[in-house]
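During the reporting period the student researcher (J.K.) took over the structure-prediction task from the postdoctoral fellow and processed the backlog of single-chain submissions. One of the processed entries is reproduced below for the supervisory committee.
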Amino acid sequence: MNKKNLVNNLALFIALLFHIAGAIGILFTPYKNWFIQNTPVNLLVMVVLLIITQKQKNFYFFFFMLITFTVGFVVEYSGANTGLIFGHYTYGNILGIKVLGVPVIIGVNWFIVIYCAGIATQLYETKMLNRINAKGLTINAKVQKISFVIDASLLAVFFDWVLEPVAQKLGFWQWQASKVPFYNYVCWLVISALLLALFQRLPFNKRNIFAVHLLMIQLLFFLLLRTFL
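J.K. obtained the following structure tokens:
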């Protein structure tokens, strides 16, 4: 086993360990609150694993990370304090240290979701394009770019749709009247599309199989909690 495979396998093991332990702890043990309170630790560990497994880390990768974190934090600040973006909601105290009423860790979450959605979509569409090209067919480059942004943005919105009811039950944030407005998903789609268009244009390596695995793990984790919590 080469070093890259060893790192990816170790990262996958840690991600599975954290999320399986979290699901069991929240659903089946008297230590539910302890597991929920340590959500920021989970997110920090996952972003460190994404950085470690990112191949050929360059300036553009870290630039994208910074931009995504900043945009995510700014839009969440606007949403939580004005209701102009996403709708009317307030943050609880579960997600840790706040700046201007918004947990700092929320910017990290934005990076994880957008980056993983981008990597997963890039991998899938590359495989599809290779199959199409093998048959002697071609797809216009502009169509490919537009398709990527739409598909990856919809994947990010789907992730948020799975997360929202769980986030309220866990006390991450609370929507007015406990109802998630459709406007929230519209905003997610637009903001995700802008960030993923940047993701597509920046020249950094976009083959990170651990990011695909992490997206699947987190989706299954929140689907499990959405079903049984």
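The committee noted the following: The CA atoms of residues 149 and 194 lie 8 Å apart.
J.K. will present the remaining backlog at the next meeting.
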